[in-house]
Specification:
CATH architecture of one domain: 3-Layer(aba) Sandwich
Largest sheet: 6 strands, parallel
Number of helices: 13
CATH topology of one domain: Rossmann fold
Structural class: alpha/beta
Radius of gyration: 23 Å
Helix content: 25-40%
Distance between the termini: 43 Å
Strand order of the largest sheet: 2-1-3-4-5-6
Number of strands: 22
CATH superfamily of one domain: Methylthiotransferase, N-terminal domain
């Protein structure tokens, strides 16, 4: 009888990818993924440490899971609880101390050892407080131990090519929870991409904490940058769309910028976090780029790809940020313009240098600044969406709407596009005339939906992945 696995994913696309690979790791051991905690034999919380109070949210969830575990015991079943991801990496043994019902704690670099951890936990007696903790940074490459075959099927897929961070921004925990920068060999990336295409993917999003810092061993045994890797991926039969996230301005080299103008499969949408428009704040953040550096990168990108749309991250109320520095951020936003952005109030992450700075900004000031910043960003997003009215876009339909007879897909610029269409068009790239632009999406009409029509390009099986989550601030 198959065992049931439930994974709850928090945070960025990297965690979405990791959760899928955890399911792949456990599949040969008889575990089937399910969509609810009820009846699960193994429950994993794949956590994120970027946002404020992330740790406390995990403990609150564990409190609720304890009831499920107790109910399973009353039914004569053993339910294991695991905490994975960045909170697990940061907290380690503290999780077991505070929540003794937790059986497994493991970081982002050790989930390839999950079957071994499960066996160790099951060998323990008592059914709770097993406390198998594995938060090392192992010498081996976890990707060498992950199964080649994946249960994931879908028109859109995530592919992790780079992990870790060497930037050490003063607000960020990623270097401490994900470790040093590591890039997978190009051959391994291309092989996994081929398997994803065989499973129905026509769009692949390349993932990394600093994905454009990619410098993996190439097919010619020389280091390849992200631009060269993208060019080779674009040659794979059946791959029609390539995206990548999350990037750092310092790693936007000339070849990658050129690829945006030379590789048709590379979509005209780029998430490039700037965080602030103030040079003084950027220096305090240890970003190692100026506001004008960012402007010049944007100019070069738009010179080679005029229809490029930008997304970004902004942190308001960073320690020491004055009114003048905040105004500089607003000025950059107005000058550059963004199709989409993620903005947050600064929150201190324990162990990061910025957390110990004395000049912390009052919460009300941060809230007021965030409201002012978001008002501009939201207006820019609506204006961008409405600028697409009347255009015809190839839309990759990847999920059903809650409205009967309607599907939802992604256009080239990452907006959700709603249109009336039969379910058989799931997993197809279809031309849609855009008729309206909303705050967070577009709506339109499918031009034709004859399966033999030239407007439709077959992309494989119906997808099982949901749309991407907001990226972690880098």
């Amino acid at each position: 009888m198959a065992k049931k696995l439930f994974v709850k994913t928090y945070g960025c696309q990297m965690n979405v990818y990791d959760s899928a690979r955890m399911a792949d790791v456990m599949a040969p051991h008889g575990y089937e993924p399910i969509d609810t905690v009820e009846g699960a034999d193994l429950v994993i919380l794949n956590t994120c440490h970027i946002r404020e109070k992330a740790t406390e949210k995990v403990y609150s969830e564990l409190g609720r899971l304890r009831q499920n575990k107790d109910q399973a015991a009353r039914e004569g079943r053993r339910m294991l609880i695991g905490v994975a991801g960045c909170v697990a990496q940061a907290e380690g043994d503290e999780i077991v101390r505070r929540a003794p019902m937790v059986d497994l704690v493991f970081g982002p670099q050790t989930y390839h050892r999950l079957p071994e951890m499960v066996v160790r936990a099951l060998d323990r007696t008592g059914g709770r407080g097993a406390g198998v903790v594995d938060t090392d940074f192992p010498a081996e490459d976890k990707f060498d131990f992950l199964p080649e075959e994946s249960a994931e099927r879908g028109a859109s897929a995530f592919l992790s090519i780079q992990e870790g961070c060497d930037k050490f921004c003063t607000f960020c925990v990623v270097p401490y929870t994900r470790g040093a920068e590591f890039s997978r060999p190009a051959r391994a990336v291309l092989d996994e991409a081929r398997r994803m295409i065989a499973n129905g993917a026509s769009e692949i999003t390349l993932l990394g904490q600093n994905v454009n810092a990619y410098h993996g061993a190439g097919l010619d045994d020389r280091d390849w940058g992200l631009g060269r890797l993208i060019r080779h991926l674009a040659e794979l039969p059946g791959l029609e769309r390539i995206r990548y996230t999350t990037s750092h301005p310092r790693d936007m080299d000339a070849d990658l910028i050129a690829a945006h103008g030379e590789v048709p499969a590379l979509m005209p949408f780029l998430h490039l976090p700037v965080q602030s428009g103030s040079d003084r704040v950027l220096e305090a953040m240890n970003r190692k780029h100026s506001a004008d550096d960012f402007r010049r990168i944007v100019d070069r990108l738009r010179a080679v790809r005029p229809d490029l749309a930008l997304s970004s991250d902004f942190i308001v109320g960073f320690p020491g940020e004055g009114d003048a520095e905040f105004v500089e951020t607003l000025r950059l936003i107005r000058e550059v313009t963004f199709a989409q952005a993620y903005s947050f109030k600064y929150s201190a992450r324990p162990g990061t240098p910025a957390a110990s700075v004395e000049d912390q900004i009052p919460d009300q000031v941060k809230s007021d600044r965030l409201q002012a910043l978001q008002q501009i960003l939201n207006a820019q997003q609506v204006a961008f969406n409405r600028s697409k009215i009347g255009s015809v876009q190839p839309v990759l339909f990847d999920r059903k709407s809650h409205k009967p007879g309607q599907l939802i897909g992604r256009g080239p610029w990452m907006q959700s596009v709603h249109a009336e269409a039969p379910e058989r068009l799931l997993g197809h790239l279809i031309d849609v005339r855009i008729e309206d632009g909303h705050a967070n999406s577009l709506s339109g009409t499918v031009l034709r939906h004859d399966p033999d029509a030239s407007e439709i390009r077959q992309t494989g099986l119906p997808p099982s992945v949901t749309h991407p989550l907001p990226p972690a601030a880098e």
